């Protein structure tokens, strides 16, 4: 038999259906229509919906639109770590390395008194620096900042992760112990 009209309408607006419809439009070389359809997934305007939209758009190479969607996700819930990760991934995919590094620096300000949040921010900072191929430059900057002022656990942690990424695990472990 046929589906009742109400059920069919609900299915046509489901995120899965919209994702497949957008993929079809993309394959038909109708990019603007595909993006419009994918943006409908965020009809509830939640951070999670915008995060899903950003991931889909990035997967198909619509990086400007993916960046706008990840910004929407961050605006709706700046405490969602996955939104930060997606936003940084899109910035790096766009070769916007400077903005990615600036953005990950700001992440620490969201929950300054939450050590778990800070540790995730430090990990993302190190990952972003490595992905942006700025290991040497950023390591030097962190070491210079640390030499000017009191020890900062976050800077020491990131420096340790950078040394570890560079294959200098012994120096990394020393900085990590100093940051604990």
Largest sheet, in brief, is: none
DSSP E strands, number: 0
Query: What is the global morphology?
Result: elongated
Radius of gyration based on Cα positions: 20 Å
> What's the SSE pattern?
HHHHHHHHHHH
Number of helices: 11
Low-confidence stretches: 4-10
Protein structure class: mainly alpha
Binned, the helix content reads over 70%
Please give a handful of descriptors for the protein shown:
180 residues, mainly alpha, 11 helices, 76% helix
What does it look like?
- This protein is mostly helical.
- Helices cover 76% and strands 0% of the residues.
- The chain contains eleven helices and no strands.
- The longest helix is centred in the last third of the chain and has 17 residues, at 115-131.
- It is elongated.
Gist of the model:
Helices cover 76% and strands 0% of the residues.
Write the layout of secondary structure elements.
Blueprint: H1 5-12, H2 15-27, H3 31-39, H4 47-59, H5 63-76, H6 81-93, H7 97-107, H8 115-131, H9 135-148, H10 153-165, H11 169-179
Helix pairs in contact: 2-3, 4-5, 4-6, 5-6, 6-7, 6-8, 7-8, 8-10, 9-10, 10-11
């Amino acid at each position: 038999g046929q589906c009742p009209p109400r059920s069919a309408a609900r299915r046509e607006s489901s995120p899965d259906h919209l994702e497949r419809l957008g993929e079809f439009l993309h394959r038909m070389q109708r990019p603007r229509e595909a993006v419009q359809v994918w943006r409908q997934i965020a009809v509830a305007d939640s951070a999670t919906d915008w995060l899903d939209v950003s991931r889909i758009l990035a997967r198909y190479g619509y990086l400007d639109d993916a960046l706008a969607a990840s910004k929407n996700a961050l605006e709706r819930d700046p405490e969602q770590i996955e939104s930060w990760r997606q936003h940084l991934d899109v910035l790096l995919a766009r070769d916007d390395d400077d903005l990615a590094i600036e953005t990950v620096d700001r992440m620490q300000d969201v929950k300054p008194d939450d050590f778990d949040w800070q540790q995730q921010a430090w990990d993302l900072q190190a990952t972003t620096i490595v992905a942006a191929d700025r290991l040497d430059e950023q390591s030097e900057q962190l070491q210079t900042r640390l030499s000017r002022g009191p020890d900062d656990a976050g800077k020491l942690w990131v420096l340790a992760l950078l040394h570890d990424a560079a294959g200098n695990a012994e120096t990394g472990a020393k900085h990590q112990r100093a940051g604990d």
